[in-house]
Amino acid sequence: MPDILSRLGRDVLVIDGAFGTMLQRAGIPPEQCPEQLNLTAPEIVAGIHRDYVLAGADCVSSNSFGGSRPKLDEYGLGDQVVELNRAAVRVARESGAQHVLADVGPTGLVLEPLGTASFELVFEVFAEQVTALAAEDPDAIIIETMTDIAEARCAVLAARSVCELPVFASVTFGLGGVMDISGTDPATAAVILEAAGASAVGMNCGLGPEQMLPYVEAMTAATALPVIVQPNAGLPRLEDGRTVFPGTADEMGGLAARFVRAGASLVGSCCGSSPAFTGAIVDFAKELPVVEGRVGLPGVVIAGPRRTLRIGAGAPIAKIGERINPTGKPELAESLRAGSMSVVRAYAAEQEQAGASALDVNVGAAGVDAPSALRSAVLALSGGSDLPLVLDNTDPAALEPALRIYPGRALINSVNGADDSLDSILPLAARYGAAVVALALDDEGIPADVAGRVAIVERIRALAHAAGLSDADLLVDTLVMTAATDPDAPRTTVESMAAVRAGGLATLLGVSNVSHGLPTRPELNAAFVSAAAASGLDAAIVNPSDAVVSGAVGLADSARAAGASPDAHGDVWAAWDAAYAAALARTAGGESGAVAARAADTRSDGERLADAVSRGDADGAPALVDALVEGGMAPGRVIGEVLTPAIQRLGDAFGRGEAFLPQLMVAAEAMKAAVARVKTYLPEDAGASEGSVVFATVKGDIHSIGKDICVSLLESQGFDVNDLGVDVPADRVLEALGDADVVCLSALMTTTLPAMEATVRAIAGEHEGVPVFVGGAVVTGSWAESVGAGYSDDAPGCVRAVREAVAARRQG
Known about the structure:
Elements: H1 4-7, E1 13-14, H2 20-25, H3 37-40, H4 42-54, E2 59-61, H5 69-73, H6 81-93, E3 99-104, H7 119-134, E4 140-146, H8 149-162, E5 167-171, H9 186-196, E6 200-204, H10 209-222, E7 227-230, E8 237-239, E9 242-244, H11 249-261, E10 266-267, H12 275-285, E11 300-304, E12 307-311, E13 318-324, H13 330-337, H14 342-353, E14 358-361, H15 370-384, E15 389-391, H16 396-405, E16 411-415, H17 419-432, E17 435-439, H18 450-466, E18 474-477, H19 489-502, E19 506-510, H20 521-534, E20 539-542, H21 547-561, H22 574-588, H23 605-614, H24 621-630, H25 635-655, H26 661-679, E21 691-697, H27 705-716, E22 719-723, H28 730-737, E23 742-746, H29 753-766, E24 772-775, H30 781-786, E25 790-791, H31 795-811
Parallel strand pairs: 1-10, 2-3, 3-4, 4-5, 5-6, 6-7, 7-10, 13-14, 13-20, 14-15, 15-16, 16-17, 17-18, 18-19, 19-20, 21-22, 21-23, 23-24, 24-25
Antiparallel strand pairs: 8-9, 11-12
């Protein structure tokens, strides 16, 4: 058989289609564990594989999608991870397919900070499954149907840690074009997964081929890797309680050809499809030429879980916020020593609002446990901020835990030309897919001349390439020295920067160092930025809230966009020389270069508490509750007038597509912390809940993520929730009902809709008047109405519906 790596990006490879759909058509009951069939009914599994091969599939995916320990535990089969996964690959190989892709699906666990699962736990789960799959020598590992970029990245890292096979990573987008849990867009997902070491990236499930096309185009523009596309057979609809996929094989084939012309080279289908769809893909797309010359995004590209930043190669000057650094900030230092991320979150929010492109995160201060603090800061900012992170630390013991868990592509600040730095930092950058800042210094210090700094940079560059990095992973800092001690230092820095940039590398400078010890610091920093920008500066570490400096960056970008050359504005150093002379004059007059204090916070305590909830500050919210109550606000009013409106505004923003699930989840935790503190001020008999809710995933369905998100939001807003878990029969719901105000039911599998309907009718028969709400990926509003239930399509809507139902019952 041909080596799949030799064909990637050269041939159009056709992947098989839906497996679960085919099992249903074979009469397999929904309560049957699909992976168990690899041992108990291998002939059924092999028959499905052969049908796809006969239809023309080059690649079949093993029947191991739910083969991780947590998924198998749901069937009581967690002790058979090795046997079931190895059998899956063996049966797939018997189909005669040219290539076997060992399939890995989501674990059902939600990673911190959005859930409770640790990175290490999920990593070990994936490593265990991939080890078993790899033992049977498949052609590649395919990780698919991921809705959280953190889990997808974790899976890629785990797979790479235990095998040498190519690793494909495919994620799922909703109609809004982002991954449901993490809110990640196609370009950002491609950047993050490529950095993590995937051999091919792509998308599957969630959408039909027509809806998927623009997202394919966005992804192929963002990466040079082969791109996988496996859409559903159209957008599903319910007919007589059954999910129907309305797409036809010819429609799939026609769109498959468009996927290939857009740059995809591995094409298959997903839910609702069959071998006939595979045959149409072969007919329409198999012989098309693969698009050549795709190069991905130019420049150095870093990414947070919801935003990508290009640096260099013609991009605007990136403003990297410098404020998360405890030097000279006692409030931040004390917060870090106490293990609180409240000030970190506040500084991040301020800088994001001020227009920062990324956030530099430095936790270095006396008494701070840097490995723990940096990891905690990364978790806090991953959930609450969209901006990519720059991890400002040179200690591998602190960097590695943070790099490991960061659900993005970080920038390490920094590596230098000393051997110990090169030996420790470069391997970390390669292992975790990070970019790195290269400092023009070594064991001998910072060279005084341009040639010396450039020589160090070139040595770092060569060793970075040897470590597996490229120029697209390097951002060079030629080191800004204070002009107070060396008036020529700024020019040497900028001349060195220009020389490095002429050699093809992107550049970064820490601007505020230039004015250290001098008065009129904003004016000096702005003049220096202007001079550096005229010589090609790509990124600046600055205070984005400094209007003078930010204005200078904006003017430089405008001039660059207009095509102005340095000579067009005369001597680029004239403004610097004037600002420097003015600063020296003021110094002679006795003025100092003290760092300006942070602007006074003029918000009320109520506004500060609402903002704390919105940014997920569970550490700081309780103290703000204390301040409000001690200031005279009644505890009940804190909930009704501050907390509830804050979380509702965020829910409304989510509904408009302006906020994403991660912000909702971390805000819910902050809300819980605040409400818990409010309750300590209430008499024991005055802490009545907003209402009582029984919540369950119905019989036959073992999916819990959607339910868990709704439960979290309900609890954060004061509802008592009796979470019955998954696979819950109707009689257990009835037993738990008692005096509950509302029942909520969830289902993700179309085969469990009859169980949901039976539960709704059982409740209506024995507890007339108790509102029942249903939801889940397969449920629609019209179907809910047909069975006599209410409906919500997302978690904020669930909270609103429950609140309105409880209010109506109490008024009645």
